[in-house]
Fold each of these.
Amino acid sequence: MMKICNLAACLVFISAAFAVGAKEIKVGAYYYAWHGDNNFHGGADTVLRYHLSPKQTPVLGWYNQQNNEVISQHYKWAEYAGIDFFVVSFWGKGSDSILREKMFNNSNRGNTELAVFLEPSISSENISSQMDYLCQNYFNKEGYLHIDGKPAVFIYITRSKSTKQLARYIKNIRSRAAANGYEVYLAGDEVWAAPNRDYEKKRISMLDAVTNYDVYGNLGRRKYVQPSHLNHWQANNKKWKQLAENLGKDFIPAVSPGFNDTAVRKGHTPSSRKLQGEKGEFGSLFSALLERALKLEGSDMIMITSWNEWHEDTQIEPVSPAEPTKKDDGEGRYTKGLAYSGYGKLYLDILREKTSTVLSD
């Protein structure tokens, strides 16, 4: 099992856990430091909520993350919801000023830790130089996330690489980290459906943990997720967890509130934030996923997809309150008949409640 707190902090936490019946769990969320122009990366018109009728806007507006007050509010909300760390999208040296200059240095960061999420731009060809940069500019920063005493690095969509490609990639990461005096903790986005044990054993062995960013794809259900799909997803998670732990590795479950990327790309049918059907409650899918993920015996970390990936509408960041609507400015092209609410801080409230409650099988 991963260890992600020092002795003093663990003792304090354990004492509190016995006192209030809370489960020891570290909560992380994928975070996007893309929004530096008050118009969002790619423009607000690439966001579903912009096309709703009437529009539904982030509580902070179409914000600029160069603004310290924006980052401060994100940290305050994270603390409220019980989020312990952000895993921040990293596209390489020169594209990371918000993370490097604004997020680490914000006076309201408190105990929120940060780690990098290597995007596809960090390739086998440039990984060595990028790792040198990370070692020299991030891993020794106060507030960088360490797991088992090692700086943590999350890697997007490792499952897209062949085993040979993955081996080269991981070897380059570990060798450059070692050359800079670091041993790193690597979490790969490897999980997809049920594991092929023979294929996955070698791949998992290269990593320290496996997880799944794409909860939408792993659920395998469009529009309304049903309890049967949740049970199938949970069964697959158990298989991945058992396989990983048999190899001495960690499995990190991930959950998401829903999915709709129709404003930024074509081809995907949205997934409602309501479980089962139109009569379900907003937030019920997120709540059910959290409950099942937290019931994975022995898991002490969970990831949320996402804090603010507005283009795929997986965000839990607060939206200004507004009545539900199925209408959009594209004659239904964006909503596909699903309703969307201006949910306020509903998802922060759900996360706060679920992760502070003992959940037993």
Amino acid sequence: MKNIQDAYIVAATRSAVSKAGRGSLKNTRPDDLLGKALQHALTQVPTLDPAAVEDAIIGCAMPEAQQGLNIARVGLLLGGLPNTVGGITVNRFCSSGLNAIAMAADRIRVGEADVMIAGGVESMSMVPMGGNTPSLSPEIFMSDENIGIAYGMGLTAEKVAQQWKISREDQDAFALASHQKAIAAQAAGEFNAEIFPVQIANRSMNLEQGQVDIHWHEFSRDEGPRSDTSLESLAKLKSPFAARGSVTAGNSSQTSDGAGVLILASEKAIKTFGLTPLARFLSFAVKGVPPEIMGIGPKEAIPAALRLAGLTQDDIDWYELNEAFAAQSLAVMRDLKLDPSKVNPLGSAIALGHPLGATGAIRAATAIHALQRRKIKHAMVTMCVGTGMGAAGIFERC
């Protein structure tokens, strides 16, 4: 693909991912969390003048309530960026964070900007999947062609498991491997460089003193990976989606809270501010599939992103294939014959969580740091998207 100029990632950071509803971030507002992520990203590029940022594009899958009112702009102001920096919130469900990166890169590649911020944020503790008051058009139910729009994501995974003949045993084995890889990665410190610490206030009533006591603790470790997961425990779980289903909470992604932020720059900005590029953004593609089998979306997006980058599957050293469900991940891997050793080497959403609109930015931060740490060349971030889409983006180590 020919560009006026290239777009480079010069900073990439994320929060640790918290369990929705019961984890460390359950009482942390997403706009506050985004502000902290933006602040930390800027600390990675201390020579960059924040006023040079042209715009911030932030993904959010359920942009309402505590994460409404254009959370991108609110987060910027809470994060202390200059009033001159604009902000826009974008939504393509699970690929929102990745889409934000692609859109920010495009602004640079066509010469409209030299410094951009991209990222994603989601609090599934405060805004549930589907939003607070979901309302579907009655027209959706008037034809078989559109009825898949109304399917819950678990049911779409059941459809994929049936159509692609993905067994319950294979799904559970895939889920177990995700936890095992994530636990090993945590023990080896693989995520340390990408995670910024969040200070969490724990409040308790002190009846003797008649006051509320505040105790602070640092949150900097993903909460999802479980060392006690086993094939035996996974096999005991029932499917909530179908009477004889194979998709369970154990082989599905976890509902989560989190945020991720990247800073992108042109070669001109890199020279002006003395920045060190981590990776070059190569391509992005999105493709549609039937809504009722939305999980198969990456099967169409991956080849499209490769064509745009002028690469083949063999050129990709690291795949971040977001594990919305084990069933859809396995279907994509088998159809495209992806090398399992290159797919989610550190685990993914089954173990690490899936804060919807933030996931694309979070997994991009993981991939970019992996490129640097392991001295490999190309990484892809890809995921399925609700209502029947797949998205994929490719990064090249500098």
